[in-house]
Structures are given as C-alpha cells and as structure tokens.
Amino acid sequence: MKRDAPALVFAMTFPSVMAWVYFVALAPSPTNATEAGFLVRTAYSAAKAVQFLFPVVWSWLWERSLPRPVPPRRRDVLLGLLFGATVAAVALALFYGVYRDSSAMRGAAGRFHAKMMDFGLNTPVLYLLFAAFLSVFHSLLEEYYWRWFVYGRLRRHAPPSVALPLASLAFMAHHVIILAMFFPGRWLEMIVPLSLGVAAGGGLWCWLYEKTRNLYAAWISHACIDAAILFVGYDMEFLHRN
Known about the structure:
Number of strands: 0
Order of helices and strands: HHHHHHHH
Oligomer: single chain
C-alpha cells in the first residue's frame, strides 16, 4: 500500500484539480476571451495527457507491467449495450420531457455556448467530431483510468465494499465542479442529483469491471451514455438556441 498510496491520491484528485483550473480559474472575461480560450484548450490538453499517461508510466516504472487487452466476449458487449442504451434513453426522456425548457437549462445554455467557444467548437461539424472523440475514445480512456487503475489498485488493498464507493466518489468529484459551473446555485435541483447519478454510474462500471475482469461492458455503456449527454449538448447549442 505504501507504493500505491501516492499514486492513488494523485489519480483520485488530479482530475478535479484540473477541472477547477480550466472551468473556473481560467474562465474568460469579456476583455480576455481569445487569450482565455487558448489557455483553456492548452490546460485541457495538457491535463488529459498527464491524466491518461500517468497510470501506464507508473505501472511500468514500478512493476514493468502494462494493460493487456483481451478479446471481447459477446456477453460483455451485450451487457454494456443493454445498460448504456437504457440509461441513455432515460436521460433523453428526462431532458425532452422535463428539463429542456426549464429555467435551469436556459441558464446553462448560455454558459455551455461560452464553453464551446473556449474550445473552438463553433460549428456543428466540429462539435460532432469532438463529441465522437469523447464518446468513443475518451470514454475508453476514462474506463482504463478510473476502473482499471484507480479501482483496480484500490481492490489490491480493500474489498469491493470499500474500493467501489471510494473510486465512484473520486470519479464523481470533478463532475461536481463541472455541474456547478453550468448550474450555479442549483444544488438541490440539479447539481446534487446529477452528481449522485454520476457516482452511481461509476459504481456500476466498477461492478461490471469486477464481474467481467475487462473493460468492454463498462466502456460500451459509458460510450452510449456520453453520446446521449453530448446529443443534449448539441440540442442546446445548435437546435434549441435557434
């Protein structure tokens, strides 16, 4: 545990620190929008590079080991699709049936638009390309980071009843910062329930990883849910605003 402890502390806190940096500390003002947008993109890219390189570098330096992909099993793929499609359908139903025209979403739309401008995503094509990257590749990297490395390392030293909630709460933490930026002050209405939903999703993905011993089910379901969330963003940015 002595060797894993600093790695786990870093891995479980670094995403939240960097989310605060590029969503709060580097938030643009009317006088520095262009410069701030460049800094946000630079900080985001650097943070993601550090985050996703850290587990393999640490594992190689200390253990001379690397993640070893295994062939997908049909059962795991179907399990991931079933869970992911179900949650994605519920999320879209809630958005279009309850939240789309709410005051919370109207307020979030302007902040979402500003953040898209920070990232240079000012056309539907650019947004969809970025959304495809996040849904497919970024979700895989998050699963490797949060389930294979964080949860996997915690499981070396604790049972699932301890490792699963710790990994899930750490996974939730940076989402709280992002949600607080989009929905300032709306803790009971939006931030708390959505954050708990993220933690529950992270917990289920830990459970899937525990049961399947691979990332396919968690990755596929994660990708489906991210795609639904990013479609909500597309609606807010390019459909509902017009």
